[in-house]
Amino acid sequence: MKFRPLHDRVVVKRITADQKTAGGIIIPDTAQEKPSQGEIVAVGPGGRDEAGKLIPIDLRVGDTILFGKWSGTEVKINGEDLLIMKESDVMGVIEGTTAKKKAA
């Protein structure tokens, strides 16, 4: 099943946080905060202004983004946990990251 978001919405896959501290202590899942970074997996066509003109989204599939702690709606598509959020919920794009991305 493919999913295409409508209007100015994007589908995001969270990037998992580290499981250990710098000192080597393993953090259990129950104590970890949900990460506020993710990778965009699908983008809608964009919103419309008052005149009905399409305003394209400034985000692309594959962008690594930063979003608020309570942003988006959690959904499960094809057994994968994803977030659907509006473009305005995205705080910014993280560019030039060389760190390894781990899919949640």
Brief sketch in words of this structure:
By secondary structure, this protein is mainly β.
What secondary-structure arrangement, pairings included, does this model have?
Blueprint: E1 9-14, E2 37-43, E3 47-48, E4 54-55, E5 64-67, E6 73-77, E7 80-86, E8 90-94
Antiparallel strand pairs: 1-2, 1-7, 2-5, 3-4, 5-8, 6-7
Strand order of the largest sheet: 6-7-1-2-5-8
Strand tally is 8
The proportion of residues in beta strands is: 35-45%
**CATH H-tier superfamily:** GroES chaperonin
How would you describe the overall organization of this protein?
The strands form two sheets. The chain has a six-stranded antiparallel sheet, with no helix packed on it. The protein has strands at residues 9-14, 37-43, 47-48, 54-55, 64-67, 73-77, 80-86, 90-94. The chain has one domain (1-15, 35-96): 10 Kd Chaperonin, Protein Cpn10, Chain O (Roll). Strand 3 and strand 4 form a beta hairpin. It is elongated, with a radius of gyration of 15 Å. The chain is mainly β.
Main features:
104 residues; disordered C terminus; two-stranded antiparallel ribbon; 0% helix; six-stranded antiparallel sheet; 10 Kd Chaperonin, Protein Cpn10, Chain O; mainly beta; elongated
